Amino acid sequence: MKTTKRPPASISGARLIPRAPTLIAALAMLILGFTASITAAREALPKVSLEKLEVIRKAAEQGDAQAQSILGECYAEGTGVAKDAAEAVKWFRKAAEQGYAIAQFNLGECYANGIGLTKDDTKAVKWFRKAAEQGYASSQFFLGLCYDEGTGVPKDQAEAAKWWRKAAEQGDVSCQSLLGTCYLVSEKK
């Protein structure tokens, strides 16, 4: 008797591997993986010399959005300057108001976590959305989480999946995992 080999499982058509991890396990893996990637990214930040910092500061003061965002990062992380959340927010806001997506995302994170200003989920969503609409995958991830949890917006799983899908299509592994979990949960209902 000839046996046929099963094709590899895929997400298409919401068909998943029957032994996929539970929702809790999938979320735990996601959180641990995401935290590790943030830590690695922060450790990879270059050391800023005083000369480079002064060049960045001058450009930021002259209105350069990218320099403003970088200066905000320096204050947020204490890279080359004393760590100062309020000063970080000041520079993120200047760049974000010019439409710089990374700064919009960072300002959204500040609002979401009450860093350097009063925690405000609605304003966090506003800034996450601005960056997400420009295609910034990290912001699409967090905007999806806001919709998934009903934080700052009404809970809406379809809207969460929409934003995660956009980030997943850019190769964001966390969002690919979340989408798989969404398909798994919807298939079990």
> Which regions contain 5 or more consecutive residues with pLDDT less than 50?
1-32, 34-45
Q: Which structural class matches the secondary elements?
A: mainly alpha
Q: Give the strand content.
A: under 5%
Sheet with most strands: none
Mean residue pLDDT: 80
Q: What value does the Rg take, in angstroms?
A: 20 Å
Number of beta strands: 0
Name given to the CATH architecture of the domain at 46-119:
Alpha Horseshoe
CATH topology of the domain at 46-119, what is it called?
A: Serine Threonine Protein Phosphatase 5, Tetratricopeptide repeat
User: What is the share of helical residues?
Assistant: 55-70%
Number of H/I helices: 9
Describe this structure in words.
There is one protein chain. The protein has 189 residues and is mainly alpha-helical. Among the domains are: 46-119, Serine Threonine Protein Phosphatase 5, Tetratricopeptide repeat; 135-189, no CATH class. The protein is 67% helix and 0% strand. It has nine helices and no strands. It has helices at residues 23-43, 50-61, 65-77, 85-97, 101-113, 121-133, 137-149, 157-168, 173-188. The longest helix has 21 residues, at 23-43. The model is unreliable at 1-32 and 34-45 (pLDDT under 50).
